[in-house]
Amino acid sequence: MTRSSDPVVLRHRHLEQIAMTALQAGVLLTETGGKSLLVKEGMRKIAEGLGAEEVHARIGFASLAITVTHGENTITRMTGTGGHGVNMRLNHAIRDLCVEVEKGGQTAEQVREALARLKAGTPHHPRLVIALAAGIACAAFGRLLGVDWAAFGPVLAASTAAQWVRVSLLRRGTNTFVLTAIVACLAASLAGLLAIPAGSHMIETAMTAAVLLLVPGVPAMNAQTDIMEGHPTTGSARFVTVGMILVFITVGISAARLLVPALPDQIFEPQRSVLHQAVFGAVAAAGFGVLFNFGWVRLVWAAAAGALALAVRTVGMDLGWSLEAASFAAAASVALGVEILSLPRLRVARMGTALAVAGCIPMIPGGAATQCIIGLLTLTAEDPATAAETLGMTASAGLRVAFTIGAIGAGLTIVRSLFRRSDFV
């Protein structure tokens, strides 16, 4: 008997095909914005559907490993992952495939071909639509931060141009952090230089709003969810990446400040009406939904989720709640709404955790995060007379960011865990 016809060798080759196919699905789920538990479950469904009796997976930030067993035969394989992006249409298409494969009847080759078709054929929004959506989302973010109407158009134009450049650099394979600094500098510079002749009195806030398309909202939420669901190593790695992105956003804004004349913002009470916050929360959430490659129907639901989140947060703050408490209540309300609409008897559209995250994105304090890091940089040049005041403001901004993101993540995860609905329905 030759080695190629040895039944033990054949069984191991079959297990290897199962393992590599499951890993291929896991890589795509990771690269399109899937949290660790979702990636692990998707790999298990693929492997068991193809004939594995036991499946054990290890989910890392830059690599995935899987061990599959059938009878007395066991094999372990590992593969690397690429950049962690967000593409919800492809992510959900792969989830659907995982569910179908779990039912059995398909071969590893058929599944790999299906994965290749999904990767190549899943539709994307046109590049111009994506750029405009980013601009509109940042302009809406600006209004939520208190930017005056004179700066609305400059922020929209600057963010649209920056997103166009961002996509171009991504296609060239530019390092993520270098790209972040370049795009942040471009967006902030354009917003500031355009807002000055437009007559805006909120130049610095406009510059901050223009770079919010770079704030890693989904990775930040996934990081916290991973830790809460028992994957602290991957969650910690995600947090480090989020922190690095914020640092390079700050580098870009700092460079832009050298190009834009220093004109301090005028102090006035920002618009805090529930209607105002809900409208611009809806616009921002829908804009980010385009960046996440939501389908058109899901974009409507993303807008509704954003409106609900900002309305609840505004009402809470009007009642005297802290920003963190109001953000927790808003995130929990959005998550609850998504879960209720996803119940079999009430399902009006296929919901998902990503929809709840998109609705909560406008609540992430990107401006405070940038203020915190810029404050730390400023401390290196402060004279002792004002250093204490700067340190206090910097620490306050940093704590506000940490606690607000924590409150949003907790609100989403607590409600999600109470319903215990599978990510694959």
Question: Top keywords for this entry?
Answer:
mainly alpha; three-stranded antiparallel sheet; about 425 residues; about 70% helix; 16 helices
**Computed structural class:** mainly alpha
* Envelope shape: globular
Distance between the termini: 47 Å
Spatial extent as radius of gyration: 23 Å
Tell me the number of strands: 3
The major β-sheet equals:
3 strands, antiparallel
- List the uncertain runs: none
Mean pLDDT: 86
Tally of individual domains: 3
Summarize this structure briefly:
Its main location: membrane. By secondary structure, this protein is mostly helical. Helix content is 70%, strand content 5%.
Describe it:
By secondary structure, the chain is mainly α. The chain is 70% helix and 5% strand. It has helices at 7-31, 36-49, 88-102, 108-121, 127-145, 149-171, 176-198, 203-210, 217-228, 232-259, 274-291, 296-318, 323-341, 353-360, 366-379, 384-419, and strands spanning 54-59, 63-70, 73-80. It is globular and about 70 Å long. The N and C termini lie far apart (47 Å). The relative contact order is 0.10. The model has no long low-confidence stretch (mean pLDDT 86).
